[in-house]
Amino acid sequence: MKVLSLGGLKARLTGGSDGEGGGQGPVVVLLHGFGAPGDDLVALGEALGAPAGTRFVFPEAPLDLGPGYAGGRAWWPIDFQERMLRRMRGDHGERDVPAGLVSARLAVDALLADVEGKLAPPAGQLVLGGFSQGSMLALDVALHTSHALAGLVLLSTTQLAAEEWATRYAGRAGLPVFMSHGKQDELLPFAVTESLRALLESHGLTVEWVPFVGGHGIPPHVLAAAGAFVRRALA
């Protein structure tokens, strides 16, 4: 594994010809979730079974959450008390544009520019994805960026910025998307994500939908399905 700065973000590189992101193969960028350390998803580089030579980039979110999170980081802050009160009122935040979302999007977009410039994946060989907060950001970036994507992996995501996103779905028509979500997810309601999946499909995105019995996580069969999706996207 190699650590370097891409677009101003600390990033870990694995895979490729040397295990440190070397070579000229495809690139998969995965964004970790709220409260996780920057290396939280690194193990997925091997577990996904991507094509030989695939390079993985794991950016570290810019916000340090302090000692209470034992090194955990975030792409933008979350007020969990306020969020709980709103959920009790039936408001799941689908229309919210979180403070910090735009700056996080710009940071990841700059990282993608650096990935294209420094790692130079073959044309049409860049996959973006993430887990939880990282997946929300991945979708937001995909809807705003001009970078070409071979696929989008959304693990336990949810709807944000509904009005803004609605104007951008059509621009990604045809994009292959992998989505998974636990039916007993205690943090992000399953029904909201299921509705988001239908919305993406209605605008022409091609969605592989893998719901599962379980909570907020990535069970082995979901990981296997995501790996198969990545292999197809990079074929």
Task: Throw out a few tags for this protein.
32% helix, 23% strand, single chain, globular, 235 residues, alpha/beta, 7 helices, Rossmann fold, two-stranded antiparallel ribbon
Q: At the fourth CATH level, what is the homologous superfamily?
A: Alpha/Beta hydrolase fold, catalytic domain
Terminal CA distance reads 25 Å
Q: Would you tell me the overall average pLDDT?
A: 94
Task: Kindly state the number of beta strands.
Answer: 11
Question: How much of the residues is beta strand, in percent?
Answer: 15-25%
CATH architecture: 3-Layer(aba) Sandwich
Instruction: Give Rg in angstroms.
Output: 17 Å
Structurally, the number of domains stands at 1
Helix content class? 25-40%
Helix run count: 7
Low-confidence stretches: none
General form? globular
H/E element order: EEEEHEEEHHEHEHEHEH
Characterize the largest beta sheet: strand count, sense, and whether it forms a barrel. 9 strands, mixed
**CATH classification, class level:** Alpha Beta
Q: Could you say what the CATH topology is called?
A: Rossmann fold
